[in-house]
């Protein structure tokens, strides 16, 4: 696991899965021993009921395990989406609390890594939480947790005003984790609009797979979701796994959906058959493809911006 303060220094299931295949776990510069690389990306509609959401997550995890998935990625706010301001803060728990321990047991029982984006972690005071991306390994151990850096304080045109910072405290640490599926860069939702974070994950911390659990609004999703995700994949030459909330959660909130997996060339290699259904899509992460793309187009060697930035006058 690699940690770094943010911002960086001025140097800068519905469709049947494909048959199982193997991918390669890769070191920072070369491909090493083969390992299973079958990953799944979930699409779901969370509601204001912890038990109902867990039942959905549990069902999808068990279905994914039967399909041979070894790493399953859930969207932001997978465990709870409330309909009233401040409701999630009252439910917020530490990572060793009963809510997360339930999901740890699920990972252990299924022998599967889980990416749980956007958990309501207890914050620094009674009126704030952290929006935390939690990574659990196949033994049920919390391997890492990333607190969302960029908070969604936005007046969405023709939609609603969102003020995430009213109840959420931002994180300040970039997180990269080594796993059997590559070197994982953890982010959450609105982070997607800030390419410097993804540049830091790739070029400073050598990420190979970027995780973007999200709950994009319908308006912003229609306009920007896929194009931003593909841009992040292309400019970093990483796989991107983007699990999304979908449909109407309550009378106030609706999410765009469209959970997808994108390869390092920017091609969508897995998605659900529609934007609203609950289920998961499956793809194989082949880290030799990351190596091949980066070798043929060595942008890491051609980057000049850091040196230009350092030498520029204030």
Automatic annotation (TrEMBL):
<dbReference type="InterPro" id="IPR045254">
    <property type="entry name" value="Nit1/2_C-N_Hydrolase"/>
</dbReference>
<dbReference type="InterPro" id="IPR036526">
    <property type="entry name" value="C-N_Hydrolase_sf"/>
</dbReference>
<protein>
    <recommendedName>
        <fullName>CN hydrolase domain-containing protein</fullName>
    </recommendedName>
</protein>
<dbReference type="Pfam" id="PF00795">
    <property type="entry name" value="CN_hydrolase"/>
</dbReference>
<keyword id="KW-0378">Hydrolase</keyword>
<dbReference type="InterPro" id="IPR003010">
    <property type="entry name" value="C-N_Hydrolase"/>
</dbReference>
<dbReference type="GO" id="GO:0016811">
    <property type="term" value="F:hydrolase activity, acting on carbon-nitrogen (but not peptide) bonds, in linear amides"/>
</dbReference>
<feature type="domain" description="CN hydrolase">
    <location>
        <begin position="37"/>
        <end position="287"/>
    </location>
</feature>
<feature type="region of interest" description="Disordered">
    <location>
        <begin position="1"/>
        <end position="29"/>
    </location>
</feature>
